[in-house]
Amino acid sequence: MNEQETRIRLHELGFDDWFAARVDGTLAGTHSLARVSAVDRGAYLIVNEAGELTAELAGKFRFDAGSSVDLPCVGDWATVQYHNAGTMAVIHGVLPRKTFLRRKSAGRDVDFQMIAANIDAAFIVQSCHYDFNLHRLDRYLVMASEGHIEPVLILTKTDLVTPEELEKTVTAIRRAGITARILALSNATGAGLDDFRRLLAPGRTYCLLGSSGVGKTTLINRLLGREALATRATSHTGEGTHATSRRQLIVLEQGALLIDTPGMRELGILGAGAALDDSFAEIHDLSRGCRYSDCRHSGEPGCAVRAAIEGGELDADRYANYAKLKKEAEHHEMSFVEKRKKDKAFGKFIKTVKKEMRKK
Ligand SMILES: Nc1nc2c(ncn2[C@@H]2O[C@H](COP(=O)(O)OP(=O)(O)OP(=O)(O)O)[C@@H](O)[C@H]2O)c(=O)[nH]1
Ligand SMILES: [Mg+2]
Ligand SMILES: [Zn+2]
Fold this sequence. Notes:
Largest sheet: 5 strands, mixed, barrel
Number of strands: 13
CATH superfamily of the largest domain: P-loop containing nucleotide triphosphate hydrolases
CATH class of the largest domain: Alpha Beta
Radius of gyration: 22 Å
Number of domains: 3
Bound molecules: guanosine-5'-triphosphate, magnesium ion, zinc ion
Helix content: 25-40%
Structural class: alpha/beta
Distance between the termini: 15 Å
């Protein structure tokens, strides 16, 4: 591949003049450019003009990084060197980020965790059935605007609500003063998918954000035209577990770049349990009236929350939404064992990629 072809291919992966102006000229000839396509606890995949391969951080880069924010994240442009005939890469640095998505690390004030970098538009995905929540939507909008990213709201599962219910949701969003573009679709029937496709431009990068189970990965699979990525429907994971376990960049045939993220990431912006009780303050207050201090509100005697639902003072759907998020928060907090499981899964994933590379 000559220099010209390499440049064209990198542009297809989202590289542009903005980044070109920020490449350290002294590295020309010795270093190459590649885009980070997946990250999971110290293991990296990158994509370059020839395809996808695994990468490691240079020791000096890791050592010099002041915090995790300085380390590569999905979507970053990295300066790399290749070894073993181009099958192994070492990342020496990342270019400045044009835009970014980051969340506050749980439990700390000033620490941030990167979600993705160099995103042109963020798709904030909520299901119009059951998951929809204005407060959460607002958090995502703040997150996008802080990162200088245009937000687009995607309402999924329109097949599960009536047109009137959908209309009500859209009205509620507009009444809250949210002016971002809204697109409603169903992965099940395909309604709205063509409109969604029209939003995607070749060489542009999009990130899907939203709670677990809203259909982010299903949407990507619909665009790919095959079950390329595991969803809750295909992975047979139980309720409350996350079908997607890592952030990953996917290149569509038509040329757009999509980053899938696991739903649990939203817990960071909500601040898990505490913030939940904050946004569902009335439920938290009600629970103080339960007979048992550790009441799960699942049929215990003297449960004030159940009584409020039965008495019509607390909306059953609102409570269901709270219970679901609470479960997710707890899941997030007990995630040590889960994390280990995921590490193993990622190890397997890396092995498959390596095998694929050897075949080429
Ligand atoms: N009825 C209906 N079901 C859908 C739709 N989109 C997705 N689903 C189902 O919703 C479930 C969750 O979908 P996923 O794509 O795994 O959700 P996700 O947002 O990727 O979830 P995480 O990876 O856990 O963050 C699956 O069982 C899908 O089949 C839709 O538009 N309508
Ligand atoms: Mg997913
Ligand atoms: Zn109770």
